[in-house]
Specification:
Blueprint (H helix, E strand, L loop, with lengths): L5 E6 L6 H6 L2 H7 L5 E6 L2 H10 L6 E4 L17 H6 L4 E4 L2 H5 L4 H13 L3 E6 L3 H5 L3 H12 L9 E5 L13 H17 L7 E5 L7 H4 L7 E4 L6 H11 L2
Parallel strand pairs: 1-2, 1-8, 2-3, 3-4, 4-5, 5-6, 6-7, 7-8
Helix pairs in contact: 8-9
The structure holds 1,3-dihydroxyacetonephosphate.
1,3-dihydroxyacetonephosphate (13P) binds next to strand 8.
Length: 249
C-alpha cells in the first residue's frame, strides 16, 4: 500500500488533556514533508477540539469528532451536540457507528439518522462496522457487515462523503488481527458490496483494530486498505508517526 494517498485517523476515545495537544505538535512538521501522501485526522474528545484546531490551524492535519446527537441543529437536548455544532467547532470529519458507541445505545436506526445529519452539515463520515467474536466464529461476518452497511446507507444520497471503517470488535484493543488473506477476502467483500449494491465507484475503506507499529508491518501489505483507524497507539505521537512511516516503507 505504498503509492496511494492514505488515511490515518487517530481515535482518542475518552482520553487526552490540554497537555496532550502540545505533545502532539511534532506531527505538524512531520506532515509537512512533500513526499508524504497521507491524510492525518485527529479525533480527540469534544473538550479538546477547539484548542486543537486553533493550535494546528496552519497545518495539514484535519479534525473529527467521535459521535454526535441525531437531531440536526440546536434545541433542548441537554448534554448533546449536533453535527452542525461539530462542523462549527472546526471539524471536517465525524466517527459514527463505532462499536463502543453502539455498546452505549447507538443502534442501526439512530446511526443512520446521525449519518444523514452529519452529511447534511458537510461533515465527512467515518462509518464503523464489524462483527463480534461470536459472529465471526459462527461465520456470520459478511451477513453482519451487509446488515450494518445497508441500514447505515438507507436514504443516504451523498455516499461518496463516507469512509468505511471495518473494525472487527474482537480485534479492538486486543492485539489480535485477522491474517492477511482472511482480511483481504473480507475487504474484497466490502468493496464489492459498496460498488454493486450501493453504486459507490471508488469506496474508501479503512481498517481498525489493534493497528500499531508491529501489526502495521503486516497490514500494509493487505490489498484494498485505504488507511487505518487507530485507537491506543494514536495517543502517543511517536507511535502514531511510526505507524505512518512504516506504512510507506
Ligand atoms: P485500538 O487501536 O486501540 O485497538 O482501537 C481501535 C479502535 O477502536 C479505533 O476506532
Amino acid at each position: 500500500m505504498t503509492n496511494k494517498n492514505k488515511y490515518f485517523v487517530a481515535n482518542w476515545k475518552m482520553n487526552g488533556t490540554n497537555k496532550s495537544i502540545n505533545l502532539h505538535k511534532k506531527i505538524i512538521q512531520f506532515a509537512k514533508k512533500k513526499s508524504l501522501k497521507s491524510n492525518i485526522i485527529y479525533c480527540p474528545p469534544y473538550t479538546l477540539i477547539r484548542s486543537f484546531v486553533d493550535i494546528f490551524k496552519n497545518s495539514k492535519i484535519k479534525f473529527g469528532a467521535q459521535n454526535c446527537f441525531y437531531k440536526d441543529s440546536y434545541g433542548p437536548y441537554t448534554g448533546q451536540l449536533s453535527s452542525k455544532m461539530i462542523k462549527e467547532s472546526g471539524c471536517d470529519y465525524i466517527i459514527l457507528g463505532h462499536s463502543e458507541s453502539r455498546a452505549f445505545g447507538d443502534n442501526d436506526k439512530i446511526i443512520n439518522k446521525k449519518i444523514i445529519s452529519s452529511l447534511n452539515n458537510n461533515l465527512k463520515v467515518i462509518f464503523c462496522f464489524g462483527e463480534t467474536y461470536k459472529e465471526k466464529k459462527d461465520k456470520n461476518t459478511n451477513k453482519i457487515i451487509n446488515k450494518q452497511i445497508t441500514s447505515a446507507l438507507k436514504n443516504v444520497k451523498n455516499r461518496n462523503n463516507i469512509l468505511f471503517a471495518y473494525e472487527p470488535i474482537w480485534s479492538i484493543g486486543t492485539g489480535k488481527i485477522l491474517n492477511n488473506s482472511d482480511l483481504e477476502s473480507c475487504l474484497f467483500y466490502i468493496q464489492k458490496l459498496l460498488k454493486s449494491k450501493f453504486r459507490i465507484k471508488k469506496p474508501i475503506i479503512l481498517y481498525g483494530g489493534s493497528v500499531n507499529s508491529y501489526t502495521v508491518k503486516m497490514l500494509k501489505n493487505v490489498n484494498n486498505i485505504d488507511g487505518f483507524l487507530i485507537g491506543s497507539a494514536s495517543l502517543n505521537v511517536n507511535k502514531f508517526i511510526d505507524i505512518i512511516k512504516k506504512t510507506y516503507t
